[in-house]
Amino acid sequence: MYTVIGPVASRALRVLWMLEELGQSYEHVKAAPRSEGVVAFNPAGKVPVLIVDGTPVTDSTAIIQFLADRHGAMTHPAGTLARARQDSLTQFLLDEFDAALWMAARHSFILPEELRLSGIKNTLRWEFERSQHVLVQRMGDGDFVMGDEMTVPDIILSHCLSWALAAKFPIVEHRLTEYLDRMRARPAYKQALVR
Predict the structure, then answer these.
(1) What pLDDT digit, counting tens, does each position of 69-126 carry?
(2) Where would I find the GST C-terminal domain in this sequence (predicted)?
(3) Nearest to residue 11, comparing CAs of 44, 52, 54, 58?
(4) What is the distance between the alpha carbons of residues 152 and 142, in angstroms, rounded to a whole number?
(5) Where are the alpha helices (DSSP H) in 58-140?
(6) 181 in Cβ contact with 143 (< 8 Å)
């Protein structure tokens, strides 16, 4: 049994969703970032944390890739060209989507007010829109990022697109809007939301 630490309204959703897709049992501890229940396992105070056999694993991407590798699902084998492409798409999403949204969040409510730069959000929205055009050109022809098979980048992209809507970052590519609707209709995603 796994233990996931972190509220649903955070990157912990990625881990919960992955576990639901994999059909794995888990306990969910909804501890907030920087709370005692988090800092005990991650000195940085960041969520999510996955406890595996008493060992904490941090960073949502590392966690979901670990789970995919461990259970042999939603990933391509290490050392294959398909895995290289998957890892490339994962890094692209982290650099171009997640990073822009995280920076906007920091300048909205995380940093002390005197350090926030509200104007930066316009630049980040522009970059986010530009990255959508690039991603659509890199996506496969099927229902998922890489084609016909759901993989780790799908969890990250779907989470980022949902986050974007909440942060009022427009989704300008129709294909991504349709994609997000399909992903959010998945039973595993819906189950993860109610944990």
Answers:
(1) 999 999 999 999 999 999 999 999 999 999 999 999 999 999 999 999 989 999 999 9
(2) 79-195
(3) 58
(4) 15
(5) 60-71, 81-93, 99-105, 120-138
(6) no
Share of the chain above pLDDT 70, in %: 100
3-class DSSP state of 80: coil
State whether residue 19 is helix, strand or coil.
helix
* Residue pointed to by tokens 């779907």: 158
- How many Cβ atoms from other residues are within 10 Å of residue 48's Cβ? 27
Give the whole-angstrom CA distance, residue 107 versus residue 120: 8
CB-CB contact of 61 with 68 (8 Å): no
CA proximity to 144, closest of 169, 101, 175: 175
* Distance separating alpha carbons of residues 40 and 5, to the nearest angstrom: 11
Asked if residue 36 lies in contact with residue 29, where contact means CB atoms within 8 angstroms, the answer is no
Nearest to 161 by CA among 149, 147, 177, 174: 177
The radius of gyration of the chain's CA atoms, rounded to the nearest angstrom, is 17
Overall size of the chain counted in residues: 195
